[in-house]
Amino acid sequence: MKPTILIVDDEPGVRSALSGVLRDEGYAVEAVSSGEACLERLTRGPVDLIVLDVWLPGMDGLATLARLRERQVDVQVVLISGHGNIESAVRAIKMGAFDFVEKPLSLDKTVLVVRNALNQRRLEAENRALRARVDRQQSMVGESYAMRQLREQVAMAAPTNGRVLIYGENGTGKELVARTIHQLSRRRSAAFVEVNCAAIPEELIESELFGHVRGAFTGAVADRRGKFEVADGGTLFLDEIGDMSLKTQAKVLRALQEQTMEAVGGTARIKVDVRVLAATNKDLQAEIRAGQFREDLYFRLNVIPIFVPPLRDRQEDIPLLADHFMAEFAREYGRRIKSLDAGARGVLLRYPWPGNVRELRNVIERLMIMVPGETITTTDLSFLDPGALQRTPSTDPPAERQTLHEARDQFERDVILRTLAEQQGNMSRTAEVLGVERSNLYRKMKAFGIAPARRADADEEGG
Ligand SMILES: Nc1ncnc2c1ncn2[C@@H]1O[C@H](COP(=O)(O)OP(=O)(O)OP(=O)(O)O)[C@@H](O)[C@H]1O
Ligand SMILES: [Mg+2]
User: 450 CB less than 6 Å from ligand 1?
Assistant: First the structure.
């Protein structure tokens, strides 16, 4: 998108000359003739840079600048000062203007200053975003029992070369787990390469994974390296592995078995040293039964299974995550942190988060942008499905009208969930700890609407 520049000058000659050169430089340019008009324009949408004359009828340039700062308008400002009026230029810089140009205006000089100012603005924004991303990558936030277990498993799996299969619902943090494993491994200085198997069309996925040679198919105009090769020495993260076709699965299996691969249309097999991490939100056991997933590939990938629990089963993490994302977005947008009042915190705790951590993150970002004040209240959260909030959190005292039967069900459900988390979803061990038959545990889970443990297979391997 083109950067937008707003020129504020009362002389029509200056407005048209500046507009002309800046437009020629490829910017979107608007012009107004007073400080008041400038402020009015900014209420209607953002601009990237303002070229502001110091001498203006009515509100002068410095007063306009002061207003912009007061309103925390995120914009770069370049001042045009009258000849010899260095004093006000210096004051402007102190008030956060980027630079000033003196009248009589040199158009070349102005264009240069504008370009520098926009560059700096872009770098600052990139810097903020990068810093936020780095922080985000490195921290798996949460102090619930389930999270501490997860961190421990990640720390244990990371330094090995073992393949890890990460299970979990949408938005639970599977990718974060994969990135953390890479960060904590000896491969950390090499590449972490991600392939989203669900997002790539079937006819392109092989070329994406293994590369292709020029002319291998229509559109293959040059040789292209595949992700396996790009990840050489590092980590390849196969996301949404359950969405890979059987044909591609066969090729991936061979690559894993032989640690070599062949580009589409190529003849030579290339040796690669890649650690594969995979993730899925599907029940791969069911996919195998349905003939959609190769069992042999499944066993290759599932050397170390890691289960990321849904957010509703680790409510204690919700406030920590909310604060974490608040800080992240405050940094990213260069704004102040907002606080959640008790009511708002209660709503976040009671909401079941079908989209898990990602949904929570989106909600916090939305609040950061949309709530004008410093405090977030229940009304700011009214867009969350109110019907969903009926659910009683397991930490609440039993509801007044609860029957003994309901109370027992709730208690049983909680115990099963906790034990499943402790046993990382292993059904046999969970059944053993709880002292019930496996089939009985399955039945109970079904009745309570608990998703079947996705690593029931680990039982057959003896855990
Ligand atoms: N424990 C956590 N601490 C901090 N941030 C987290 C945590 N878990 C998830 N996130 C953040 O939530 C978002 C969603 O996580 P991620 O993309 O890893 O989920 P996912 O399971 O891969 O989701 P999907 O199934 O939709 O691909 C990311 O921005 C991630 O950084
Ligand atoms: Mg993901």
Answer: no
Kindly list the distances between the CA atom of residue 90 and the CA atoms of 7, 56, 220, 288, 293, in Å, as whole numbers in the listed order: 20, 18, 58, 71, 68
Ligand 1, atom 28, lies closest to the CA of: 358
What pLDDT is recorded for position 84? 67
Residues 441 and 349 in one domain: no
Q: What is the pLDDT of residue 398?
A: 45
Q: Is the CB of 242 under 6 A from ligand 1?
A: no
Please report which ligand is nearest the Cα atom of 177.
1
- Using the 3D structure, point to which of 109, 134, 159 is the last residue of a domain: 134
Does some domain include residue 158?
Answer: yes
Instruction: Supply the residue whose CA is at minimum distance from atom 12 of ligand 1.
Output: 358
Work out the pLDDT band at 462, boundaries 50, 70, 90.
very low
Query: 235 lies in a domain?
Result: yes
Ligand nearest to the Cα of 168, by number: 1
**What is d(CA 445, CA 411) in angstroms, rounded to the nearest whole number?**
13
Q: Is the CB of 141 under 6 A from ligand 1?
A: yes
pLDDT digits (tens, 9 = 90+) for 137-191: 568 999 999 999 999 999 999 988 899 999 999 999 999 999 999 999 989 889 9
Q: Is 142 in the pocket of ligand 1 (CB under 6 A)?
A: yes
Q: Domain of residue 453: give its range.
A: 404-459
Among 139, 357, 454, the mutation site with the greatest number of ligand 1 atoms within 8 A of its Cβ is 357
Any ligand 1 atom below 6 A from CB of 280 = no
The answer on 264 and 300 residing in a single domain is yes
Query: Residues 112-130: pLDDT tens digits?
Result: 999 999 999 888 888 777 7
CB 306 within 8 A of CB 167: yes
Same domain membership, residue 176 and residue 288: yes
The neighbourhood of ligand 2, an ion, using CB within 5 A, equals 175
Q: Please tell me the residue having the least CA distance from ligand 1 atom 9.
A: 173
Dist CA 389 CA 456 (whole Å): 31
Classify strands 304-307 and 339-340 as parallel, antiparallel or unpaired. unpaired
Question: Which range, of 220-234, 362-376, 403-417, 436-450, averages the lowest pLDDT?
Answer: 403-417
On whether both 336 and 230 belong to a single domain, the answer is: no
| Distance from the alpha carbon of residue 174 to the mean position of ligand 2, in angstroms | 6
**Burial call 313-336: b when 16+ CB within 10 Å, e when fewer:** bbbebbeebbebbbebbeebbeee
Task: Indicate the length of the chain as a whole number.
Answer: 463
